[in-house]
């Protein structure tokens, strides 16, 4: 399990990214559960293994919405998978992280998640990177607020500004019956993937 990246946002906020190369039997001798895809079982097993080895978190479960929950109340977790990449963020407050393979997929489905107030694609940035980045931003914010409200990407989340050279961006969140909230996020391009995380 090669560790690709370790980010320390501050002393109570950490993010790890690595390559998932293990077979399922690396984690368990219990065999394959035919009700769940092999890839999904590897993703879950790898997430549990990493949380235990790097963060000392021994239990991982998922709520009805699929949000990861642990037995440590002072550690809040967000997990993302894309192909063979896995990203795990552990914060002391609600957090959202997303990792995505940079591809044309987000460009093809952009009408499903774009908000009229989203910033425009800078001329020096490819559309595939830009729209993958926007999608990952909205995924990260959705995860952070999932316990509060089920946000609609195209209506309640919009990106004000992206600072490509600094790996920073600003987004707005339109919560029902509340004032719009500003969210600062960070991002990194790691090989052919983009990693986005709430700050």
Structural description of this entry:
The mean pLDDT is 91. The relative contact order is 0.15. Strand 3 (60-62) and strand 4 (68-70) form a beta hairpin. The chain has helices spanning 38-55, 105-108, 127-144, 153-156; strands at 3-10, 13-19, 60-62, 68-70, 76-82, 85-91, 97-101, 157-163, 168-173, 181-190, 193-198. The chain folds into two domains: 3-93, no CATH class; 98-198, no CATH class. The radius of gyration is 17 Å and the shape is globular. It is α+β, with helices and mostly antiparallel strands. The two termini are 26 Å apart. The longest helix is centred in the N-terminal third of the chain and has 18 residues, at 38-55. The strands form three sheets. A five-stranded antiparallel sheet has the order 7-11-10-9-8. Strands 1-2-6-5 form a four-stranded antiparallel sheet, covered by helices on one side. 22% of the residues lie in helices and 35% in strands.
């Amino acid at each position: 399990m090669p560790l690709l990246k370790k980010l320390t946002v501050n002393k109570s906020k950490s993010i790890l990214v690595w390559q998932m190369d293990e077979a399922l039997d690396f984690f368990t001798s219990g065999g394959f559960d035919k009700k769940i895809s092999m890839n999904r079982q590897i993703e879950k097993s790898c997430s549990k293994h990493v949380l235990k080895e790097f963060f000392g978190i021994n239990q991982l479960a998922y709520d009805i919405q699929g949000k990861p929950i642990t037995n440590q109340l002072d550690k809040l977790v967000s997990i993302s998978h894309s192909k063979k990449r896995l990203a795990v963020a552990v914060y002391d407050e609600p957090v959202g992280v997303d990792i995505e393979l940079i591809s044309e997929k987000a460009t093809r489905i952009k009408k499903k998640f774009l908000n009229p107030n989203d910033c425009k694609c800078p001329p020096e940035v490819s559309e595939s990177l830009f729209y993958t980045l926007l999608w990952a931003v909205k995924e990260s914010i959705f995860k952070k607020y999932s316990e509060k409200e089920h946000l609609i990407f195209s209506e309640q989340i919009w990106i004000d500004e992206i600072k490509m050279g600094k790996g920073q961006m600003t987004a707005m969140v339109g919560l029902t019956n509340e004032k719009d909230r500003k969210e600062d996020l960070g991002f990194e391009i790691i090989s052919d993937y983009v990693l986005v995380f709430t700050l």
